[in-house]
C-alpha cells in the first residue's frame, strides 16, 4: 500500500482519526471542540467492549466529508460566497440520516461530531440508518426569505451528489425549518424531473411530511423526563423545570412538561432568559415570540442570563440549545436533579464527570432527543410507501420505540456499571460493529 494513503489508526498518531487518544488526554484535546468531545465519549464507551481494533478505527473516522464553497446572489445584486458541509459518519446500517444546520458558528469539527452522534442515535433506536450532518456557515436571521431560498437551493444542489432517498436524507436542525426542507425537496425533485418527497424529512405535511414530526423531539424529551422522574422517585406534579433554548425542541418540550403537570420556571434563547418561581405563562411567551421577540424582558418575570438559568434550583434542567453549554466551568454549580439533553452534545466529558460525582441523572442526547429522528424515519417510510398514518399511530409508534430504548439504556447502565451516556453509546457502537462484521470488509 502506498505509504501516503495509509489510514493511520489511533495507535498510530498523526491520523485524522487519532487527533485525540483514548481518555481524551492527548495534546490538542479541547473542551470547546465537539468532535474532540465526541471522540472522548467514544473511546470511553469502547473501553467496555471487546471490539476489533480496525472496526474501532473505522468508527472513529467519518466515512466521507464534503466541503462546498458556493455563490449566492443577494437581493442587492451582490454575489456572496458561503461555505457548507455534509458529513457521513457511517453507512453500514443503511442510508445516512441527519439534520442541516444554518449558523455562523458551524465548523467542520462540529458537523463531524453531530454526524457521529447521529450514527449512535439511529443505532440506539434500531433505525436502519447511518449518521450524517450538514451545515452552512450563515446567520439565517440576516438573510431575506428570497436569499435564504436561493442559498438553500444552491447548497442542496452542491450536496446532491450525496443526497437521495436511498443514500442520504436530511432533516431540520438549528436555524432550519420545514420551509427550508420544502425548498430542498423541491430542488432535488426539479433536478430529477418528478417529486421525490422521501429525500428529506421534517417537511410540511402538505408535501409528504408526517403528522407529529414537529412535536416529535419535544414529545420524546417529555417522555424521557417522566421515566427519569419515576426512577428518581419524584412526582411529576409540580416538579420544577428550566429550559435552555426555546426553538423547535425547547418550545415543544416546554408545552409537553406543562401538559404533564410540571411547573416551568425558566426559559431562555441565545440573548438571555426569564424566570418566574410561580410558573411561566407559556401562551403569552409564545405570542411574544411570534411577534419576533426573544424570551427576554417579559412582564411578570425576572430577566436572567443563560448562565444563571443553567444553575437554577430546579428538579429538571432541559438543555435544548447547542453543544458545550454544561462544562467544567459551571457543572459543579448545577443544582438540577435531572439533566435532559434535548440538544446534541450540551455536556462536555469534563462536566459529565462532575455531574456524575454529584449523582445528577443525565438523560443522554442520543436517547433524550431521539424522538425527532424516530418520527423522521416514520415520515420516510410513509413517503416511500405513499401511505400516511394518523397522528395517533405516529405517537403510539414513537412512544413504543422511546420506551424500549430508555429501558435498554437503563439495563445496560446496570450491566456495565456505567453512566447512562456510556450505556447508550455502548449499545449503539456494539450494534454498528456487529453489522460491520456481518457485512464483511469489501472486497
Ligand atoms: P432552533 O434553531 O429551533 O432553536 C435553537 C434555540 O436555542 C433558539 O431558541 C436559540 O435562540 C437558542 N440558542 C442558540 N444558541 C444558544 C446559546 N448559546 N445559549 C442559549 N440559547 C441558545 O433549533 P432546534 O431544532 O430546537 O435544535 C436545538 C438543539 O436540539 C440542537 O442541538 C439540535 O441539534 C438538537 N436537536 C434538534 C432536533 C429537531 O428535531 N429540531 C432533533 C434532535 C436534536
Describe this protein's structure.
The protein has 443 residues and is α/β, with parallel strands linked by helices. It folds into 3 domains: 5-59, no CATH class; 63-196, Rossmann fold (3-Layer(aba) Sandwich); 215-363, Rossmann fold, CATH 3.40.50. It has 14 helices and 12 strands. A 7-stranded mixed β-sheet has the order 9-8-7-6-10-11-12. The protein has a 5-stranded mixed β-sheet with strand order 1-2-4-3-5. The two termini are 15 Å apart. 52% of the residues are buried. The structure holds nicotinamide-adenine-dinucleotide.
Key descriptive features of the protein:
443 residues, alpha/beta, Rossmann fold, 3 domains, five-stranded mixed β-sheet, globular, binds nicotinamide-adenine-dinucleotide
What is this structure's SSE topology?
Layout lengths: L33 H13 L6 H8 L3 E10 L5 E10 L7 E8 L4 H17 L5 E8 L7 H14 L9 E5 L5 H15 L20 H20 L7 E5 L3 H12 L3 E7 L2 E4 L6 H9 L11 E3 L1 H5 L5 E4 L18 E4 L7 H9 L3 E3 L1 H4 L2 H15 L5 H26 L3 H20 L4
Parallel strand pairs: 3-4, 3-5, 6-7, 6-10, 10-11, 11-12
Antiparallel strand pairs: 1-2, 2-4, 7-8, 8-9
The site of nicotinamide-adenine-dinucleotide has 24 residues, from helix 7 and strand 7.
**pLDDT < 50 runs, ≥5 residues:** 1-14, 19-27
> How does CATH name the architecture of the largest domain?
3-Layer(aba) Sandwich
CATH class of the largest domain: Alpha Beta
* Count of individual beta strands: 12
The SSE order reads: HHEEEHEHEHHEHEEHEHEEHEHHHH
Radius of gyration: 21 Å
Across the major sheet, the strand order is: 9-8-7-6-10-11-12
Tally the helices: 14
Query: What is the percentage of strand-forming residues?
Result: 15-25%
Q: Which distinct ligands sit in these coordinates?
A: nicotinamide-adenine-dinucleotide
Q: Classify the secondary structure makeup into a structural class.
A: alpha/beta
> In this structure, how is the largest beta sheet organized?
7 strands, mixed
Overall shape:
globular
Helical percent range?
A: 40-55%
Mean pLDDT: 93
Count up the domains. 3
By CATH, the superfamily of the largest domain comes out as: NAD(P)-binding Rossmann-like Domain
Q: Give the terminus-to-terminus CA distance.
A: 15 Å
Might you state the CATH topology name of the largest domain? Rossmann fold
Amino acid at each position: 500500500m502506498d505509504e501516503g494513503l495509509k489510514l493511520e489508526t489511533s495507535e498510530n498518531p498523526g491520523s485524522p482519526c487519532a487527533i485525540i487518544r483514548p481518555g481524551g488526554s492527548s495534546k490538542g484535546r479541547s473542551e470547546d471542540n465537539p468532535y474532540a468531545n465526541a471522540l472522548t465519549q467514544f473511546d470511553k464507551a469502547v473501553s467496555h467492549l471487546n471490539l476489533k481494533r480496525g472496526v474501532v478505527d473505522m468508527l472513529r473516522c467519518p466515512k466521507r466529508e464534503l466541503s462546498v464553497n458556493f455563490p449566492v446572489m443577494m437581493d442587492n445584486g451582490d454575489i456572496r460566497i458561503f461555505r457548507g458541509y455534509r458529513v457521513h459518519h457511517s453507512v453500514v446500517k443503511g442510508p445516512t440520516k441527519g439534520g442541516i444546520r444554518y449558523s455562523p458558528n458551524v465548523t467542520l469539527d462540529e458537523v463531524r461530531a453531530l454526524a457521529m452522534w447521529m450514527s449512535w442515535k439511529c443505532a440506539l433506536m434500531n433505525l436502519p440508518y447511518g449518521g450524517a450532518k450538514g451545515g452552512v456557515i450563515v446567520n439565517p436571521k440576516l438573510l431575506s426569505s428570497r436569499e435564504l431560498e436561493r442559498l438553500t437551493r444552491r447548497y442542496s444542489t452542491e450536496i446532491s451528489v450525496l443526497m437521495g432517498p436511498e443514500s442520504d436524507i436530511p432533516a431540520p436542525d438549528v436555524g432550519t425549518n420545514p420551509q427550508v426542507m420544502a425548498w430542498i425537496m423541491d430542488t432535488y425533485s426539479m433536478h430529477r424531473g418528478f417529486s421525490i418527497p422521501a429525500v428529506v424529512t421534517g417537511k410540511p405535511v402538505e408535501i409528504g411530511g408526517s403528522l407529529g414530526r414537529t412535536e416529535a423531539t419535544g414529545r420524546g424529551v417529555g417522555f424521557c423526563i417522566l421515566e427519569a422522574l419515576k426512577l428518581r422517585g419524584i412526582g411529576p406534579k409540580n416538579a420544577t423545570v428550566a429550559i435552555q433554548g426555546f426553538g423547535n425542541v425547547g418550545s415543544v418540550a416546554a408545552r409537553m412538561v406543562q401538559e404533564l403537570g410540571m411547573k416551568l420556571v425558566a426559559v431562555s434563547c441565545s440573548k438571555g432568559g426569564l424566570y418566574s418561581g410561580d410558573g411561566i405563562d407559556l401562551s403569552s411567551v409564545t405570542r411574544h415570540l411570534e411577534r419576533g421577540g426573544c424570551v427576554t424582558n417579559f412582564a411578570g418575570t425576572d430577566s436572567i442570563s443563560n448562565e444563571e438559568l443553567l444553575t437554577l434550583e430546579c428538579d429538571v434542567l432541559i438543555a435544548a440549545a447547542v453543544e458545550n453549554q454544561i462544562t467544567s466551568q459551571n457543572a459543579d454549580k448545577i443544582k438540577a436533579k435531572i439533566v435532559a439533553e434535548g440538544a446534541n452534545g450540551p455536556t462536555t466529558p469534563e462536566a459529565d464527570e462532575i455531574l456524575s460525582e454529584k449523582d445528577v441523572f443525565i438523560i443522554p442526547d442520543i436517547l433524550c432527543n431521539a424522538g425527532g429522528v424516530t418520527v423522521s424515519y416514520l415520515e420516510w417510510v410513509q413517503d416511500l410507501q405513499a401511505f400516511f398514518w394518523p397522528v395517533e399511530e405516529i405517537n403510539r409508534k414513537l412512544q413504543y420505540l422511546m420506551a424500549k430504548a430508555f429501558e435498554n439504556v437503563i439495563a445496560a447502565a446496570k450491566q456495565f456499571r456505567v453512566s447512562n451516556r456510556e450505556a447508550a453509546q455502548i449499545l449503539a457502537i456494539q450494534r454498528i460493529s456487529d453489522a460491520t462484521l456481518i457485512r464483511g470488509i469489501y472486497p
